[in-house]
Design goal:
The complex is a heterodimer of chains A (426) and B (86). Chain A has 426 residues and is α/β, with parallel strands linked by helices. In chain A, 35% of the residues lie in helices and 18% in strands. Chain A is built from 16 helices and 14 strands. Chain A has a 10-stranded mixed sheet, sandwiched between helices. In chain A, helix 5 runs parallel beside helix 8. The two termini of chain A are 26 Å apart. With 86 residues, chain B is mainly α. The chains are: A alpha/beta (426), B mainly alpha (86). At the A-B interface, helix 4 of A face helix 3 of B.
Chain lengths: 426, 86
């Protein structure tokens, strides 16, 4: 069996605090928040009335969709996903194919939690109003889970595997690892990996009702998402999409593509909702095992990891996550790697979290910086007991480094961890 | 509304669904939506909905199935408008 090296050659992002890569780098380095007050959530009586939503103009959207597609388009997730994916493709120096032959060597694994929830709501109302015949042809393609990968594939002309994965908040990292496996085993030359998540009350409502969102910062949105803080009191819902072009090293070198980083390996597992694991709580044994296996698969030592981009949602579970990293890496309070969480700036982008955060991770590696954590000036004492405060930068650190670990954990007790390495041209 | 006016309106409705600009310009009775205008067959139901809105008529499933050419569509629009008038 083939055992190809896999690199990242293109990035795209549609995040609450930036909708292109240069702006995203600027936002990361300067701690620019994308969390804003949402009048619709307030009007609907949500406890948490702040959220992260990518700012997009109609002109921008019109660059990615035909007038006919725009006519009945009512799926924010598909809009975010297509924008991030096509930007990543172009960023990798690749073109949209205008020839009739599919690109058999390229595919996509683009994940989501749900698709077109606003479209679904519209269709359900029509059906209940005895107007089924008014649905037209656009409901299925926007509400099928794989709508986002189908739209992307059609625009580029992808002829390899085209699929959508779904594993709650682990979806984004899972998509990248599934794409990685496909290239590593020689079944595709390049894969567009990523994930997306819809915006709005109908996607966020369920979380609000579970009382897992922060309702204490409605008056100061930018302070609301507080990973690792003593006053972390629930996550702030987010949305958007992240996209990465993964490619075999030989293919990237052959076409002189820019190389951002190498994917060394990773792992996907589940705690089986056994032990301390439940539908909504992680089994720590599984989390630690996932991180350890990821490092083993990457062929490096745990003490080589220099930076961690955590899941760290800003709930009471943040300290448990740090404890799991510390145990998995078998490290001490002082030797713990630097760790940061993007969620302070964009909130928890649900199924898009892992891909947007991996884009941020790759940018840190390739450009040599560690973005500051925001809103944890009052560090959670349970975390300060576990690791030295210096490990949780609150100011930008400019530093070249080689190894980064990124993990995402999701409902259903599922885990995903990926190990990235800076690519040093030989 | 004359037949020519109906065809002109129909052309406006169909334009976003077709990329065949030349065939669109020379649209006439014999124009076939799928063969000449290369319209995605999934979009035929959307065209029917647009026609219903524009001409304020309701098109039944059997009529819908026949709406594959300009001539058949205009015939159906005219007959439904007459039904409404009557």
């Amino acid at each position: 069996m083939d055992n190809k090296r896999v690199v990242i050659t293109g990035l795209g992002v549609c995040a609450p605090n930036a909708t292109n890569i240069p702006d995203f780098v600027h936002a990361l380095k300067n701690g620019i928040s994308g969390i804003t007050h949402q009048s619709d959530l307030e009007a609907l009586g949500f406890s948490c009335q702040i959220a992260g939503k990518p700012p997009l103009t109609e002109d921008r959207i019109a660059q990615y969709f035909s007038p006919l597609e725009l006519k009945n388009l009512n799926s924010t997730g598909i809009i975010y996903g297509v924008i991030a994916a096509l930007d990543a493709w172009e960023n990798a120096g690749l073109k949209l194919s205008d020839i009739n032959e599919p690109d058999w060597d390229s595919g996509t694994i683009f994940g989501t939690g749900t698709s077109g929830i606003d479209k679904f709501r519209w269709a359900i109302n029509k059906i209940d109003d005895m107007e089924i015949r008014k649905l037209g042809s656009s409901v299925v393609v926007q509400t099928m889970a794989s709508g986002v990968s189908a739209f992307i594939a059609g625009k580029i002309g992808l002829g390899n595997q085209v699929s959508t994965n779904s594993s709650a908040c682990a979806t984004g990292v899972e998509s990248i690892l599934l794409a990685y496996d496909r290239i590593k085993s020689g079944r595709a030359k390049r894969m567009l990996a990523g994930s997306t998540s819809d915006s709005g009350p109908y996607i966020w409502g369920g979380f609000d009702a579970m009382k897992v969102c922060n309702y204490k910062h409605n008056a100061e949105p930018e302070k609301g998402s507080r990973p690792m803080s003593a006053t972390a009191s629930g996550f702030v819902p987010g949305s958007g999409a992240g996209a990465l072009v993964l490619e075999s090293l030989e293919s990237a070198l052959l076409r002189n593509a820019p190389i951002y980083a190498e994917v060394l390996g990773g792992d996907l597992n589940s705690g089986g909702q056994r032990g301390l694991g439940t539908m909504t709580a992680p089994n720590p044994v599984a989390v630690q095992r996932c991180i350890k296996k990821a490092i083993d698969n990457a062929g490096i030592r745990a003490d080589e990891i220099e930076v961690i981009n955590g899941h760290l949602t800003a709930t009471t579970k943040d300290a448990l996550e740090i404890e799991n990293w510390k145990a998995a890496l078998n490290t001490s309070k002082d030797k713990f790697p630097y760790i940061n969480s993007l969620k302070g700036l964009v909130g928890h982008c649900i199924s898009a979290a892992g891909s947007i955060e991996t884009v941020a991770s790759v940018l840190q590696l390739s450009e040599g910086f560690i973005f500051p954590n925001v809103n944890c000036e009052d560090l959670n004492p349970a975390i300060a007991d576990l690791i030295d405060e210096s490990r949780i930068p609150q100011q930008l650190i400019n530093k070249q480094f080689n190894y980064l670990a990124k993990a995402s954990f999701g409902f259903g007790d599922v885990n995903a961890c990926i190990i990235l390495k800076k690519y040093n041209y030989e | 509304m004359s037949k020519e006016e109906i065809i002109a309106e129909l052309k406006n409705i169909i334009t976003p669904y077709s990329e065949e600009t030349i065939a669109l310009q020379s649209i006439d009775d014999d124009t076939d939506f799928l063969k000449d205008l290369k319209i995605n067959s999934a979009n035929l139901v959307d065209i029917v909905l647009d026609v219903e809105d524009r001409f304020n008529i309701e098109i039944d499933n059997d009529s819908m199935a026949k709406m594959l050419t300009v001539k058949a569509t205009v015939d159906i629009i005219e007959s439904k408008r007459q039904e409404n008038a009557g």
